[in-house]
Write a structure and sequence with these properties.
Pathway: Protein modification; protein ubiquitination. It comes from Ananas comosus. InterPro entries: ARM-like, ARM-type_fold, ARM_PUB, RING-Ubox_PUB, Ubox_domain, Znf_RING/FYVE/PHD. The protein is mostly helical. The chain has a three-stranded antiparallel β-sheet. It is globular.
Length: 346
């Protein structure tokens, strides 16, 4: 859309202009109906924007009952309809591009609907190409029909391609919820992190990348913990994967993640300190973040970190001028560990 639109016109989940705005009754926030419906269908009991919990009573399970939780926002819908201009004829080049994207979308939808288990590598490769070329619209539509087959393919020889395709689909915000809500998607990605043998390095790498994209959605962090993803992520980080450290940084933002990490405190701290010693700037940035989150949560982990030399390791990064995030994370970790020392906890 070529005009600047007020942010209030965009759904907080999909970030696109709302076509059917509805109010979530228990929080008063407005969302586009398809996006918030997927959220409710996944079993979520909080407002996506404010994290306000629903009433103690169980959420209605059937679609008609759930509609009682959503009230049409007629005023906003009328305002959007008057503000958004009617589509005008596009120049030939733009028209051709739009037609090409529509063709890519239809081909992707046809292919997604025909996928079955086991899906062959050629079909998955073609679907991945079509999804990338079709843009956000293709990603949204394909996710509705292809997640079952892609989740099944994670247990097949084409697992790496399936994980890559899920990553591409999860770039669209609402798809993070759709994919994460599938009962097999995140558990099978977590299982891929344990793969050994031919093809395993790529499968583990693609699984970690898919988990990174999915865990940007808060509820998926808890799902990853329940799926047992933390121990294999720590093991993959120990093998040199800085992407695994990034995923741990997202999971450590939820309490369940920190609790799980506390169970293997010693190994996690050693792995993260190893990244501080020899990792890339991005790896150091994320290792500092994870250390600060877990050491703020657990005195045991703070003690492990100090014993491993984390305080001394983060001090050189305090004056890091080229990367402000590294300096910020190093400062936060140093303050956390020094506070623990002064308080006599460690």
């Amino acid at each position: 859309m070529e005009v600047d639109l007020p942010e209030e016109f965009r759904c907080p989940i999909s970030l696109e202009v709302m076509r059917d705005p509805v109010i979530l009754t228990w929080s008063g926030q407005t969302y586009d109906r398809p996006s918030i419906q997927r959220w409710l269908d996944s079993g979520s009991r909080t407002c996506p924007l404010t994290n306000t919990p629903a009433a103690p009573a169980p959420l209605p399970s059937s679609y008609p009952q759930q509609q009682q939780l959503l009230i049409p926002n007629h005023a906003l819908r009328r305002l959007i309809s008057t503000f958004v201009p009617s589509p005008s004829p596009s120049p030939d080049a733009d028209g051709a591009k739009s037609l090409q994207q529509q063709q890519q979308l239809f081909r992707a939808l046809d292919l997604a609907s025909s996928l079955s288990f086991p899906s062959d590598a050629a079909s998955l490769s073609q679907l991945l190409r079509l999804v990338k070329r079709g843009g956000a619209a293709a990603r949204r539509r394909v996710a509705e029909g292809a997640v079952d087959a892609l989740a099944a393919a994670l247990a097949s020889p084409s697992a790496a391609l399936a994980a890559t395709t899920l990553t591409s689909l999860a770039v669209v915000e609402v798809n993070k919820c759709t994919i994460g809500a599938h009962p097999a998607a995140i558990p099978r990605l977590a299982a891929l992190l344990l793969r050994r043998g031919a093809g395993a390095p790529r499968e583990r790498r693609e699984a970690a990348t898919a988990l990174y994209e999915l865990c940007k959605f808060p509820e998926n962090r808890r799902r990853a913990v329940r799926a047992g993803a933390v121990p294999p992520l720590v093991a993959f980080a120990a093998a040199g994967s800085e992407r695994a450290v990034e995923v741990l940084g997202l999971i450590a933002k939820c309490q369940e993640g920190r609790q799980e990490m506390n169970k293997g405190a010693g190994r996690l701290i050693r792995v993260l300190c190893g990244v501080l010693r020899a990792g890339s700037p991005r790896g150091v940035e994320n290792a500092l973040l994870v250390l600060n989150l877990v050491c703020s949560y657990s005195e045991e982990m703070a003690a492990e970190a100090i014993e491993e030399g984390a305080l001394d390791l983060c001090l050189p990064h305090l004056a890091e001028a080229r990367n402000g995030k590294i300096a910020k994370n190093a400062s936060g970790l140093a303050q956390t560990l020094q506070k623990m020392q002064l308080s006599g906890f460690v």
